[in-house]
Design a protein that fits this description.
It contains 9 helices and 9 strands. It has helices at about 70-80, 105-110, 120-135, 140-145, 165-170, 170-175, 205-210, 225-230, 230-240; strands at about 1-5, 10-15, 40-45, 55, 85-90, 150-155, 155-160, 185-190, 215-220. The longest helix is centred in the middle third of the chain and has 12 residues, at about 120-135.
Length: about 240
């Protein structure tokens, strides 16, 4: 999901990493699991005007690097636009439960089965990991996306995301909380025409929670719209923000 505060300063956020400090308890309530205060990892691209930032929030199994090229392009095209109001862009996701349409559980299972020997070159490790993912994940672009999570530490290769936690809580991750107060600002739901994540069945809930929403599909794009059709993605965003 993307939150637009104006241009041209842009901040890329990635999923928080486990904290080194103490746990911070939630409001006292019976049966509540304490929550943890987590730092955010991010990249900032500064543009020519000191306006409020445009913020990208990446999705599950992604990282702040996913939008690096898109961020640079938008910073270059955004100019000085102090008259822009706050607006929201949701990229290929609806305010509804998506467990039934997602393949992420299969991705997680395939990643958990990967086994790589220690002390081998990164290129070899990446090739071995891809070979082990291939039987379950036939689409090369998806495998390449998942492999961005493969990291090396002291000669050992591992996934930088907590696969066990994700697999145990996938229903919660792919769910959506109940909200009764709508968001009144301009909103764009930008989806891929080849993706099942935004369907006509979702329109009533989108209209209820985002009364000023418009829905746009980019032909030939799947779930990762920005990667499949990057120029069309940038153009759609700029048109929504009334940028040249």
């Amino acid at each position: 999901m993307l939150r637009w505060f104006g241009c041209p300063r842009l901040c890329l956020l990635r999923a928080p990493q486990p904290p080194a400090g103490p746990r911070v308890p939630n409001r006292a309530a019976a049966g509540r699991t304490p929550v943890t205060s987590l730092p955010l990892s991010y990249i900032v691209f500064d543009g020519p005007a000191p306006q409020p930032p445009l913020v990208f929030l990446h999705g599950l199994l992604g990282s702040k690097g996913n939008f690096r090229a898109i961020a640079r392009a938008l910073v270059q095209r955004s100019g000085r636009k102090p008259d822009l109001v706050e607006r929201l862009v949701s990229v290929d996701i609806s305010p509804t439960e998506s467990v039934a349409v997602t393949d992420f559980l299969a991705y997680i299972s395939a990643m958990r089965r990967v086994s790589i020997p220690n002390g081998i070159p990164r290129s070899t490790a990446r090739r071995l990991a891809e070979d082990q993912l291939r039987p379950a994940i036939q689409v090369s672009a998806v495998r390449q996306f998942l492999l961005t999570n493969l990291v090396e530490a002291e000669g050992r290769y591992m996934w930088r995301v907590n696969l066990e936690a994700i697999s145990h809580h996938i229903a919660n991750i792919m769910g959506f909380p109940v909200f009764h107060t709508p968001y009144p600002g301009p909103t764009l739901f930008l989806a891929g025409s080849d993706s099942p994540y935004v369907s006509s069945e979702d329109y009533p809930e989108i209209e209820r929670l985002f009364p000023e929403a418009e829905i746009q599909y980019i032909p030939g794009a799947g779930h990762w719209v920005h990667a499949d059709k990057s120029q069309e993605f940038i153009t759609a965003i700029c048109n929504f923000l009334l940028l040249p």
